């Protein structure tokens, strides 16, 4: 494809994306296709001869679009959001255009230095502790996902506790990790991948707000120590996936400092709220953490994938993940004056992800981001009030930010029917969880373009569908 052809088709693609956003509300939010339908509509073989670009774009419109669940629809309330924005998309496009692989500083200095800068910008913006700054003992790095961040934290904790000898036969000891029963499944996955053993992960009980009981954590640690085990890692959550519960990070942090354990704080979605001073209390105690992550790809308008992972002591992370073969050696690395982010993550290669985050921060500014975050929280709180005012429904958990957990009092069967009907309607998409063993619906306000009008319509629809539940 020549530069001129690229320009022409590029304009067509940008036009297509812009039109997509203009008409996004006309699509059923949850794709209504059956399993296999998309595949069977496409050619079973790769083309032998190249095809015209127009044919590809036509197939996107006619065959791919029906199989899309519209995460960027303002009527998307499922899971946690995976939101996006114009500046984020364009930053990502530039990253694709540059086609940089930034494994080492030397393989594109701007890729590394912009990432370090933007992650430093976010430390004061989210009131994170100064030890997370690259100019201090720590630093930030963009991971693909929170799952990878938690895995890196687990590995660094394992190495620090075993004096970087866990891979030597007989040097591992019996390590034990802790998280709450409400933590994301990625913690369990990290423990498995790190070879700690699923049986050595304790799921600590939660209080009536679904937040970890710090006294129960302390008791579990004592019990394990008495049994000759080595407690090494705690993952606290700021904004659990099921109900947005916020673990008492300060108390948990004090326990970790006393016991010399690694504390990782997973604030995957809710961390973004700390952009606003009135929500910064969610980060109380993070100053005691060894590592922290949040996902701009969830609620900070930066399209997937983008997780910001911070460590207080970068040396521990680098020593854990660094393996230096001959073919990667270079003068800049040897000088010790640069960051090589390959040593801060599992894969070697990495994309130029900071461009999209930089574009988002520059385009909106802190005040612009605060405006949208506040609006989302305000609208979610309004929705919670409407639910409270309808005696058929109950609120199932506190709603500190933009997630509302609610259910019909009639029981699981009624809630399942209601959710199925709503999602079938195409007018909105929400998902469920179980709280107190009861099927509970979750409505999370976080797509970039969701406004009060959308949530008002969602509530009307929910009430109307509830009228038909028998
Ligand atoms: N942690 C929490 C609290 C989450 O809610 C999620 C996903 O929703 C994750 C981790 C996993 O996110 P990722 O897809 O970035 O790995």
Description:
The chain is α/β, with parallel strands linked by helices. It has 15 helices and eleven strands. The chain has a seven-stranded mixed beta sheet with strand order 1-7-6-5-4-2-3, with helices on both faces. The chain has a four-stranded antiparallel beta sheet with strand order 8-9-11-10. Helix 4 packs antiparallel against helix 13 (354-388), helix 6 (146-161) crosses helix 7 and helix 6 packs across helix 11 (314-321). The model has no long low-confidence stretch (mean pLDDT 97). Residues 80, 145-147, 184, 186, 237, 239-241, 266, 268-269, 295, 307 line the site of pyridoxal-5'-phosphate.
Secondary structure: elements and pairs:
Elements: H1 3-23, H2 37-40, H3 53-64, H4 86-98, H5 109-125, E1 139-143, H6 146-161, E2 175-180, H7 185-193, E3 201-204, H8 214-226, E4 230-237, H9 249-259, E5 262-266, E6 291-294, H10 296-299, E7 307-311, H11 314-321, H12 331-335, H13 354-388, E8 393-395, E9 403-408, H14 412-425, E10 431-435, E11 438-444, H15 452-467
Parallel strand pairs: 2-3, 2-4, 4-5, 5-6
Antiparallel strand pairs: 1-7, 6-7, 8-9, 9-11, 10-11
Helix pairs in contact: 4-13, 5-13, 6-7, 6-11, 13-15, 14-15
The protein binds pyridoxal-5'-phosphate.
Q: CATH homologous superfamily of the largest domain - what is it?
A: Type I PLP-dependent aspartate aminotransferase-like (Major domain)
- The domain count comes to 3
- Secondary-structure element pattern, one letter each: HHHHHEHEHEHEHEEHEHHHEEHEEH
Distance linking N and C termini = 59 Å
Largest sheet: 7 strands, mixed
Helix content: 40-55%
Total beta-strand segments: 11
């Amino acid at each position: 494809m020549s530069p001129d052809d690229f320009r022409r088709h590029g304009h067509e693609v940008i036009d297509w994306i812009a039109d997509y956003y203009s008409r996004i509300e006309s699509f059923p939010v949850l794709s209504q296709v059956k399993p296999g339908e998309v595949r069977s509509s496409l050619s079973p073989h790769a083309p032998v001869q190249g095809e015209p670009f127009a044919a590809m774009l036509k197939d996107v419109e006619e065959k791919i679009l029906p199989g899309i669940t519209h995460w960027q629809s303002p009527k998307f309330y499922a899971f946690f959001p995976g939101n996006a924005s114009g500046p984020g998309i364009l930053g990502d496009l530039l990253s694709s255009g540059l086609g940089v692989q930034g494994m080492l500083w030397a393989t594109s200095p701007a890729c590394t230095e912009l990432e370090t800068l933007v992650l430093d910008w976010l430390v004061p913006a989210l009131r994170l502790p100064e030890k997370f700054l690259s100019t201090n003992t720590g630093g930030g790095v963009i991971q693909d996902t929170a799952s990878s961040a938690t895995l890196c934290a687990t590995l660094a904790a394992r190495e620090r506790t075993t004096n970087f000898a866990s891979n030597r036969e007989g040097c591992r000891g019996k390590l034990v990790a802790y998280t709450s029963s409400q933590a994301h499944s990625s913690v369990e996955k990290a423990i498995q991948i790190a070879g700690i053993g699923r049986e050595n992960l304790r799921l600590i009980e939660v209080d009536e707000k679904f937040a970890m009981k710090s006294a129960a954590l302390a008791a579990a640690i004592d019990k394990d120590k008495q049994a000759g085990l080595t407690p090494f890692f705690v993952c606290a959550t700021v904004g659990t996936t099921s109900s947005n519960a916020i673990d008492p990070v300060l108390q948990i942090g004090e326990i970790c400092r006393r016991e010399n354990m690694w504390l990782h704080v997973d604030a995957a979605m809710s961390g973004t709220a700390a952009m606003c001073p009135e929500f910064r209390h969610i980060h109380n105690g993070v100053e005691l953490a060894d590592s922290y992550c949040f996902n701009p790809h969830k609620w900070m308008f930066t399209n997937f994938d983008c997780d910001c992972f911070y460590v207080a002591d970068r040396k521990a992370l680098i020593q854990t993940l660094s393996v230096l073969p001959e073919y990667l050696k270079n003068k800049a690395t040897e000088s010790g004056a640069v960051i090589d982010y390959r040593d801060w993550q599992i894969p070697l290669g990495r994309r130029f992800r900071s461009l999209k985050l930089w574009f988002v921060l520059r385009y909106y500014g802190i005040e612009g981001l605060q405006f949208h975050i506040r609006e989302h929280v305000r609208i979610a709180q309004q929705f919670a009030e409407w639910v409270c005012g309808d005696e058929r429904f109950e609120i199932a958990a506190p709603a500190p930010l933009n997630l509302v957990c609610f259910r019909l009092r009639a029981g699981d069967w009624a809630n399942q029917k209601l959710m199925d009907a709503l999602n079938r309607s195409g007018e909105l998409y929400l998902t469920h969880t179980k709280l107190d063993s009861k099927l509970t619906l979750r409505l999370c306000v976080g797509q970039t373009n969701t406004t009060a009008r959308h949530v008002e319509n969602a509530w009307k629809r929910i009430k109307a569908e509830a009228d038909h539940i028998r």
